Amino acid sequence: MNLFFCSTTNGEIGDNLLSFIEKLVPKEKIKIFQEFNGFHRKLHQYRYVNPVAILLIANKEELLNILSFKDLLQGVRLVLILPDRKEDTIAIGQCVSPSLLCFSNSDLNEIYSMLVKIIITEMSRERKIKLRLKKGWQAT
What is the CA angle 79-84-86, rounded to 5? Predict the structure, then answer.
C-alpha cells in the first residue's frame, strides 16, 4: 500500500498527521508532497495502484485545483481535510468522492481512528491480493 500525503502549509495539524501516519505505514511507502502539482504528476504514475491519499487543504483555491483532476482520484482511498465548514466548501469537497471528509479544526483523535480503519483495510486487501496471486502462480 502506498500512501500519499499532501499539504501546502506547515502547521501543527499536518505535522501531527504525518507523525501519526509514519507510525502506521513504513516510511518507504509514504510519498510526501508540499504542492498539488507534484501530487497530480505522481498520481498519474500510480493510477493502477490505487494509493491512500491524505490531502490537507489550505483554502478554496486548492480545493478547486483538486477538483480539476478528480478523474485521477477514482479508486483512490481519499481522506480530504477541508479548511472550513462552509456549505460551498463541503459541496466542492464532496465532488471528489472522498472516503473520509473532515475539517482542519476536527478532533485529531477522530481523524486518527478513521485513518487506522482505512489503512488497515487497504493493507489487508493488498495482502489478500498477494496471496491470491501467489496461489495462482503455484497452481500452474
Answer: 110
Q: Count up the domains in the chain and report the number.
A: 1
Q: Is residue 74 pLDDT above 60, yes or no?
A: yes
In single-letter form, the type of residue at position 12 comes to: E
Question: The domain spanning residue 128 has which CATH number?
Answer: 3.40.50.2300
Q: What is the DSSP letter of 7?
A: E
Tell me the percentage of the chain whose pLDDT exceeds 90. 59
CA distance 93 to 84: 11
Helix (H) or strand (E) holding 117: helix 108-139
CA dist 8 and 5 (Å) reads 10
Mean pLDDT of all residues belonging to the chain: 89
Q: How far is CA 110 from CA 10, 38, 48, in A?
A: 21, 28, 29
